[in-house]
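ok trying again, last paste got cut off:
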Amino acid sequence: MAGTLYVTVVSASNLVAKDAGGGSDPYVEIRYTDASNKSQKIRTKVIKNTLEPTWNQDFELKLAAPKKQPCVEFRVFDEDLVWDDSLGRFPLDTSALAVGATVESTHKLIDVEHGTLTLRLCFVSSASTPASAAAFAASGSAMMQFDVTFLTADEEGAGMNSQKVKVQFIGSGAVAPPPPMEVESKDGFPRGSSKTFRVRTRDPGAVTRVRVERGPESGKADGWKLDRVTVAVITLSGEPGAQMSFPIGKLLNDKQRVAEAGTDSSAAAAQAVVLEGDVTYMIRTKTGDRKGATTTSRVTCVLVGSKLTSPALPLESAAEGVFSRGRDDIFRVITKHVGELQGVKVAVAQTDPPSPWFLEKVTVRCVETPAVSERFFACGDWLGDPSPWERELTASDRDTTDGAAATSKRYRVTVKTGDRRGAGTDANVYINVFGEKGESGNKKLDKPGNCFERNKTDEFGFECQDLGHLQRCVVGHDGKGLSSSWFLDHIVVKEEDSVKSWTFPCGRWLSKNMEDGLTERQLLAASDGSKWSCAALRHYRITTVTGDKRGAGTDANVYINIHGENGDSGVRSLDAPGNTFERNKSDDFGVECVDLGKLVQVTIGHDNKGVGADWFLDKVIIHEEETHLTYYFLCGKWLSKSKEDKLIERVLPASANDAITSLPFHRYRITTITGNRRGAGTDARVYVDITGYKSTSGEKRLDAAGNLFERGKSDTFGIECDYLGELKSLKIWHDNFGINAGWFLDKVIVEEEIAHGKKWWFLCGQWLDKSKGDHEISRELQALAQDGESCSPLRIYIINVHTGNIRGAGTDANVFLEIFGEKGTSEKRKLEGKGNLFERNHMDSFQFECVDLGELQKIIIGHDNSGVNAAWYLEKVVIREQDSGKIWHFPCGRWFARDEEDHFTERELPASMSDVNPTKPLKQYQVTVVTGDRRGGGTDAKVFIEIVGEGGKATTGKKILEGRSGFDRNSTNKFEVESQDLGELHKVIIGHDNSGLNAGWFLDKVIVSEMLKGGKEWYFLCGRWLADDEDDKQIVRELPARNEDGVPCAPMKHYIITVVTGKCRGAGTDAHVYAMLHGTGGSSSRRWLEGKSSCFERGKTDKFSVECVDLGVINRVTIGHDNAGFGAAWFLEKVMVSEEGEESVVTTFNCNQWFSVHEGDHRIERELSTSTPAGAEMLRYVIEVQTGNCRGAGTDADVYIHLFGKLGDSSKYVLPAKRKSFERGSKDVFVFECYDLGPLLYMRIGHNGHGFNSAWFLDKVIVTKEKEEGNALEKCFFICGKWFDKHGGDKQIDRQIMASTEDGVPSLPYLNYQVSVVTGKLSHAGTDANVFIELFGTPPEMSSGVCPLVGKGNLFEKGHTDNFTLELPDIGALSKLRVWHDNTGPGPGWFLDSITITVGDKPAVKFPCGHWLDKKREEGVLTRELFPLRENH
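nice, full thing came through this time. structure:
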């Protein structure tokens, strides 16, 4: 009998010893005949050095019907290096297996003296329904872990000496209950003990019962009083999850050895368990049994729970024919635990052409909470065109469907619009009704005439599936029309063929401008519709009490929203005749709204309009006239954008009692002390805000008669405000108004104006000036309990300015100076005096009074470029501090001119303690500019240069290079530049202004030479574009100086490279090793690492010194060898790089890989970065790549692979292909070494698209992780079955494939289909168009895809037969075909007689036609669907 055999190879016992040490290395090989009658072999992992191995490995075998011999045989071998020895075999007769039952049994091995093999088997025949096979594959074949706890009763004689107990779970989800599991306790099961064991078994579904069998007696008759058994699922995190309790309460002895019990009330507790982390859900879908119910589109499911909502989970399976008509499919998905299931959202992907789906129902179960029953979600409707592509289904504890599709039913909807002003709507109204069996979908409520008028009832009807008992509805409108707001009273939905009706009360607005702004509401069904209508209106009297404070009244528009336990009133404007909201006045207003229940709070505020918008609200009092209840809402705060917290809306909680809301006023005396600084006084208006631990004063202006805030003066003011308590801080500022607004504030003193009042000091000592200090005009000062110094004392600085002795050195411009010291700055000041200042070779003295600057650091000096002769040559500046006599020198020797040197009129000069003569003699330099020989290399732009010498300090300034000829392609231009002696040149800065038609410029080099006999020459090499559309788009470059022989003048650095060769066998190399250093400042050239003695020996450390330019921070190393010498292979452990010096930082680059054309990934050069894990264990990764067995499957491209695990990734490895690698149907094996990546998660695999035939069909990849050859640690399967072709399919040549611990079949086998097309003999029957065909198999959803019929010569001529061969996947027995043409060519019309299909040695299948495919004949169609002639079957 053909079918599927699910096998677990559990263990073996008492095996024959084959190794010298008395052990064996056993594994099991399973040989069987598959469904296509081909012999197959699969094997378990190898268990080293044991005669009692345990595998617990699962396999799924697709079996053919057995003939004379058993079609499954289990062979046990001892693995050896040369030949694997037999440890026995066991032939299995599948005909003796009970279909659908899981059986665990032990079998004696034959052909050997001793040995047994234990197997767990379940056989599902091909005659079984797809649902039962899928159920076993998705549920029964999965292994799970449980914690089982046996609680022995705490009473005399309850314990048991027997050490072994068997337990079996009986659940709802498996094909058959999993077999019993035996547990053992060395000390038995004593009285009152609790023994917990972790067991592994197949998924039993939702566990409903447990069966316990006690073990054999141990020398004496002893009974065991078992109180209860608890079971907990082990979650994905490895921790116990939901726990179930099974009460036993029986005595198990020799007469009664077995007890069975169901769950107690803990199952209900398990419903509330919310697991952290990922859990497993089993999702079962039932496709309806109706025409066209099947979908080929992608289906996703969203789980909606009490805790969270899952992402869209794809429902995917390797099984064939999922979502087929009348089929049950089961899917296993992993996601976060969503809590108690409440609903699901099922969606079908929209495709072209569309593929809708008729979904009968969905069933969901969480594996980790087995006590929780599965949840049912009825649908019975279409997903897809023209129905919605997504449906939301509600949960039910029972299955409300009987397997048949839901029948349609008519419903009548009665809508009552409420009796409110403006309650009617002009918008388009819709409704979606939800019942226990599904939903109606959105139905538009429309009929002739005016609908949804105030206090009017409208009736509508619609038809949909039977929804069962109605639960809720969603009603809304589109917001369109002149008046879209709608007040809905209630809705009644009635079944037209019964008396059943449901009322959905509302009594709320559906409006963007009313209540909560919603235009759609969800309404729940009421138990008695006659009792539901809009809430009754209530009258509320509102009294507002404005506080008794200066400026407390407001001119703004005030509003209120009253909140109660039943809702809120909405925002209401408080308006009445006369002046309202005046200081110390109460105002009354009336509000009518629905009964709000017990009042909770009010929201009150104003719109801040009017001359005096600020409002001090004392309280609000609301009296409910129907119940005579009074509520108090205490405030005592400002509603103001400029006071307190600047809020103009407040939420006030309800109180049953009245109270005082604000404290009495308190007086404070404020004294401001203006500092003794030049210009310290201010004409601006000054404000203060004082903060205490009890309150704040709010903004107070400091104003009094007379001149206030003058230099060195104290001013006193009084303010009145709430009692502030202990003062915390003070904010003081001015409005920056007036001619002299800047203010230097020394300190502020605040005193209480009461006997023995407290006093606080607020030290400042800073400018409140937008042009001085930090440019702030507001300060926040902290309170102090005693006075102190707030600012530094004043100092006098004598400033001597020396103008140079150069022609035109004097200036008529206004000169400014700012001094910077370690304690602050003098601020920028104009240097003013009598007579002519700043004349040639003249010294001018000035005096600055400012705070103590400490040690002077620099000055900034410049002029405003005004006057007839503004240019100025400054020789130096000397500053002396008058009290101490200390002198600072600031040498300059530069022009301050817009037409000299660098065109600067302001310079920063550093301080010097010694006097120097900064002016050097002038020198002539010749500048030679060589433009490169590149197309378009010349420039029309203005070119400039700046020559820099003396370590970057001496410079010519920016000089425009102008001459008779331009900078043409491959030209040389010479210019003369006069400047002070620059000394040894350091660099040039050269560029252009990007002007002109062709501004881009390719600069070859610049040569600068001294114009004197024997003058020195410097070279500045470029070889790059200065263009905004070339290279790096820079138009200015900085070029370092080089000497004549081309050696760069930039500083060199010495780097120490330490190379550590690994300790493994053969690690050393005879090859020549090289390295390249890469850093943030660039890369070195390739350097050969050579030493005096033998280098790179096994386990040896070698050091080398490399000299190169400064590379910055070293972050990568490229290292390799030339593969020369007898032993070129090299195993590199790590490389360490440091700068020469004792305190240099050492950067380590770990490698731990081979550099060999015969080892690992066959690479002899690697780039190392600091991200390689240090000390990681090196492992072997064996890669088996299986190319598909279909036409054109092989590739000539270079294939690469990139593995990703929990501990890291392998980086990309190119698989070294041999001559016939990656050929059709081939299996290619590659080995590389890498550090341990942890459990593999996924891989990226692809190719570079090169070669004559680059397209590639990858079947699968198998990756085995080994510690050493043959010692497998992990085996993962990466199932693909897709093309890597940039011209076909999805045009992908790189894919990510997830890891799996189980093998699978990625693609169907390919067969040759012989197609014979007979064109009819009617006049003009032939066609010039392109013809296409598509074949459909069994089931009809199996399709060949579109196949063009192409060949040599004239095809499809009148009366001719044309033959074609198509290589296609096996789609089973042909059910129909579709044929069409594209209507191209001069004569596209075609009369098709018939098509005959032959597959291998099977009988030919004929598809008769006898019709035109012509837009102008018969029905005018170009496509025909043909069905096979029955006689050919």
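cool. Confidence is low (pLDDT under 50) at residues 128-141, 265-274. The longest strand covers residues 1271-1284.
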